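[SOLVED] Need 3D model of a two-part complex

Original post:
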Amino acid sequence: MIPIKFDSVSRSYGDKLAVDRVSLSVDAGTVHCLLGPNGAGKTTLLRLMAGLVAPTGGTIEILGGDPFSKHIRSRIGWVPSVDRSFYMRISGVENLLFFARQYGRRKRDASSHARKLLEMVGLSESADLAVGGYSHGMTKRLAVARALIVDGPLYLVDEATHDLDIEGSAEVRAMFREKANGGATVVWSTHRLTELNGLVDTVTVLDRGMTRFDGDLDEMLSMSDRPVYRVQLRKPGGVVHPDEVNRSLSGVASVLGGNNRDMSIELNPDSVLGTVLRRLLESGFDIHDCYPETGLVERAMEARLRT
Amino acid sequence: MTRRFSAVTEVDRLLAFARRDFKIRWSYRTAFIGDILNLFAQVVMFAFIGLMIDPAVLPEYGGQEPSYLGFAAIGIALGAFIQLGMGRVSTAIRTEQLMGTLEPLFMTPTRSTSLQVGMAIYDFIYVPLRTALLLAAMVAFLDVGVLASGILPTMLLIVFFVPFVWGLGTLAAAAILTFKRGGAGLGLAALLLNITSGAYFPLDLLPDWMQTIANLNPIAVAMEASREALLGGEGWGAVVPHLAFLFVAAMITLVLGWAAVRMALRREHRLGTLGAY
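Solution:
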């Protein structure tokens, strides 16, 4: 059984088409990323998977059934992107206890399970504080803990790490990666490209509701444009002219833009950074700094969005 | 066996709602205690109003002239159940929408009916206790004239009456799901039912056409039967003849309410606005 199957699914809100004929399938044991800028349709797609919204076109099959069925929906661990999805006047542990009992756990079991989950997401010390006093990051961690109440085959995670610090973000990613390694399917929605490496297996790039790319992360990365580096150059006793830099890099790279101190250099397909830097040094330039202008993932996504 | 286990789980879910709501209410301690104090303030207020009203304007029950306090006490007691049945679920749904917890709740395996009952269960425990406390205070400190022989028949009447108002409440809940801040039409219907209920004044004071409506109003029927039982000493004889009517009325509102909530949920799913407010 394929856990998620979308066949030409559309969803519109009035005249606005939020999701436009999207087809995708996600295998068990994988982390699938929905990637795209704000308003690309990621959250709508997740809500369609969660059975919270009905499609206006196409067919959806989740865990072998209709996501509108209570039986299917209750097997989904869901992390919403919104901040407010808890009872603010009661503590984190009381919130989890309540939801755990709604998921069918008996009181005593639910209570110990709630504490265990809070420990997993690093909220042990704040377990008995009212959620109204939690920060955005703490509320997000609590939402992750609630999703993990469902020891289910499917997790839908909407921008789970956006309010978290670097360490917390890595911990949450590791938790869901582990779930996928254990056989669960995780759909991870984000516009943060830095989250992809080491977490996701497959990617759907969305833009204005349409699929721009759907496939393996490696495949997507291989489609990235040529590397672009930002280089800061000085010339002892003189001014750096981009034309002069261009001439010195002939055959290995070319200057895309910038000024006479700081410029963007695009490498030719067969060139490596070392050759470019050596050419610059041999031409009498001092290299003060050099760094990738955008990461591999960013360029891959940009390339997909341009197609 | 499976069914029994499922029922136990369902009860546990309802208890979780009760615990949640108690914790939330208790977190507003001043309001919680204020509500109890307000109860006693109400008793004092009705005692003074009672001094101004000539008992002769009130209808006789079982050939006896009741005091205004006794007349109003029954109105207040049943009124609490009416308010609970009609308003609690819709208010709770609205609150869940505003807090953003409605969608996470609908993601759980809890059935829609259990969600509705769960959202009101704390009040179903608290309101009868509060009402009993109010009546006990009135009986203890004031001349209410409530007869003990009418208590059990009235409790049976309430068992038949509450499903009717619960059905109205689910209709209101469907309106909240659909129209978010409720339907004006439903509010008017509730107002008409309240005016023709005879909770705080005798129905004889209403114009003829409103009295006709009142005769068909299950709230008014329950109100009058309770007064006959508790103030007139008519006991079971005052209650039993009305049970069939209340049962039919309850069935109609429950079925309509159930269908309305189902339609509202389908509509919200289709539109994707379940959590919107």
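Edit: Chain B is about 80% helix and 0% strand.
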